[in-house]
C-alpha cells in the first residue's frame, strides 16, 4: 500500500467491525445483513446516506431525492479498468420508502433492494444494512465483503475523511481481500 496516498490516513483494519450474514430468501435471492454502531446522531447518519456530497466520501455518487417514489441512482467510484480507478455508468434506482432519519429503502438495477434502518442508541446510532440481491452463490461472500468495506469507509467519513477513489485499488483492494477472507473463514 502506498504511504504517500491520499488514503494513507484512513483505517485499513477490516477486522474492527463484526462480520455480516447471508441468508437465502428464495432460489434466486440472498439477503446480506450487516449491523454497525456509529458515534453519530441518526440525523448525521441520514445525511451520510442521502447527501450526494457526503455519499461519495464513502460509498458512491448519488442522484435523486430521498423521498418515497423518487429516483435514487448510484454511480460506483471504485471500479477498476486497466489498472485505473474509474466510475461506472449510473445504476438506476427508486426509493421504496424514506422516513428521515430512520429508514431508507430503495431498489437498484444492479444491487437489488437495499434497506438501511437507523435507530438512536446510547452514544450514537445503530445501523442495520440489508441488501436483498440475486447473485450467484460464489458472489455472495464477495458482496458481503464489499459492503463491509463500504461501511468501514462510512466510519471514516463520519470523522471527516474521504476515500480518494482513484487510489482505491492500490489502497483498499487488499482490505477487501482481508474482509473477504473473514467471510470465507466464518
UniProtKB/TrEMBL annotation:
Instruction: Report the residue ranges that make up the Activator of Hsp90 ATPase homologue 1/2-like C-terminal domain in this protein.
Output: 40-159
Output the Pfam families linked to this UniProt entry.
Answer: AHSA1
- Check the record and name the InterPro entries matching this protein: ASHA1/2-like_C, START-like_dom_sf
Coiled coil, from the record: none
Q: Which domain of life is it from?
A: Bacteria
Q: Tell me which family the UniProt entry assigns to this protein.
A: Belongs to the AHA1 family.
Q: What name does this protein carry? A: Activator of Hsp90 ATPase homologue 1/2-like C-terminal domain-containing protein
Q: Which organism is it from?
A: Arthrobacter psychrolactophilus
